[in-house]
């Protein structure tokens, strides 16, 4: 499985950096509470188990990589949402 580089994550972080100052509280709360549905979570767990066992097909590998990338993006959006809801206090 191709692994996303830290450069990709860093680029996303830089792209999303201005987001907290422009995000409504309603959107921020929705992002913080965002969770995968049961079907998506079950599929991820199935693919992860098959990967561990070395049993992924090429199509399944592509599907798992897409899920991991989506999860990374959602994680960065959640971090931005938390920053919007709880801004750091300047000393």
List keywords for this structure.
mainly alpha, about 0% strand, elongated
Strand proportion = under 5%
- SS field, number of helical segments: 5
Main beta sheet, described? none
Uncertain stretches: none
Quick one: overall form? elongated
Percent helix range: over 70%
Average pLDDT for all residues: 89
Q: Termini separation (Å)? A: 45 Å
What is the number of beta strands? 0
Structural class: mainly alpha
Could you spell the SSE succession in H and E letters?
A: HHHHH
Kindly provide the radius of gyration, computed on alpha-carbon positions and rounded to a whole number of angstroms.
16 Å
Structural account:
The structure is a single chain. This protein is mostly helical. The chain has a domain of 50 residues. Helix content is 73%, strand content 0%. Helix 1 packs parallel to helix 5. The model has no long low-confidence stretch (mean pLDDT 89).
């Amino acid at each position: 499985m191709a692994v996303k580089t830290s450069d990709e994550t860093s680029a996303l972080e830089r792209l999303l950096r201005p987001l907290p100052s422009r995000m409504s509280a309603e959107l921020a709360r929705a992002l913080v509470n965002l969770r995968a549905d049961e079907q998506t979570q079950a599929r991820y767990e199935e693919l992860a188990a098959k990967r561990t066992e070395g049993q992924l097909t090429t199509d399944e590998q592509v599907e798992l990589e897409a899920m991991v990338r989506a999860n990374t993006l959602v994680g960065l959006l959640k971090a931005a949402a938390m920053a919007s809801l709880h801004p750091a206090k300047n000393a």
